[in-house]
Amino acid sequence: MPLSPEQQAEIDALRATPAPTLRAVAPGMERHLYVPQPVLDHGFVRVVDYMGDDAAICQAARVSYGKGTKSVQNDEGLIRYLMRHWHSTPFEMCEVKLHVKLPVFVARQWIRHRTANVNEYSARYSILDREFYIPAPEHINSQSKVNNQGRGELLSPEDSARVLEMLKADSTRAYDNYEAMIAEDGIGLARELARMNLPANVYTQWYWKVDLHNLFHFLRLRADAHAQYEIRVYAEEICKLVADWVPFAYRAFEDYRLGAVTLSAQMVEAMRRMLKGEEVTAENCGMSAREWREFMGVVDKS
Ligand SMILES: Cc1cc2nc3c(=O)[nH]c(=O)nc-3n(C[C@H](O)[C@H](O)[C@H](O)COP(=O)(O)OP(=O)(O)OC[C@H]3O[C@@H](n4cnc5c(N)ncnc54)[C@H](O)[C@@H]3O)c2cc1C
Q1: Mean pLDDT confidence for 223-237
Q2: What is the pLDDT of residue 188?
């Protein structure tokens, strides 16, 4: 993720000019302001701006004139209560604006989260950099046999090397042709047309602004083990930022969303019968085979 010296200088200049403010400041987030956190081989996430802190959630919940804070324990208790009972709007009072650099195929998954504001780097106006996501060998897997939407075993070292060769060669050739097509002293094709030649592993960038409630929704889906690795690593990086920004809210999110499970009525009934000592099986539980497997994955981690 090499930043150019000019980009680094802009970041340094911003960090060197703090301004006094009456607004709520989250010390944990101030540390991260403007600093890019590397993700994948050329990507990053960095905080451009944020609004609110844990106290702002309580302030909104109490519709308070002052800080809204009764005591630190009260604040954490209230935030946990709100999260547990799906009171979402107080969390919408906090916002964050991120600058993200990510491969286009990751951006396609990310953009499905509609409850955010996005402004993407224009490849009609600007020339995209020669930067392509090339996975590390430990992330090159075969198609999963059990989950159509996932990865299975690692490829053999020989096959993995072949895949890497193909990815690198195709990316290089596509970019060489992109450059040849847009060359002003050559063909001079419009950038908005030439970009169609670039593969989905080329990097794009955007500003992404979202409130905390919808960010938690994004993180629950994308920091989950079922999410594709290449978007999950971004979500995991954002989790670290959020943990420093709103520590009470993040802990509540970990406990009541990220680490929690939803049980269907049949699953709750099966659990009750099990606790009474009854033998509950796939045949007598009233669930489909797949649901039963998912249920067993929750109750039996051995
Ligand atoms: C593991 C995984 C696999 C996926 N596989 C596929 C796939 O194969 N194909 C595919 O197309 N997508 C796929 N998706 C994308 C998924 O279907 C959602 O589009 C994506 O996760 C965004 O979720 P969302 O709509 O809840 O989020 P947001 O768009 O942020 O919306 C948040 C919530 O706001 C509400 N909302 C937002 N907009 C509207 C609206 N217009 N109308 C009503 N309610 C609205 C809904 O309650 C929604 O849950 C996958 C996602 C995951 C995590």
Answers
A1: 96
A2: 96
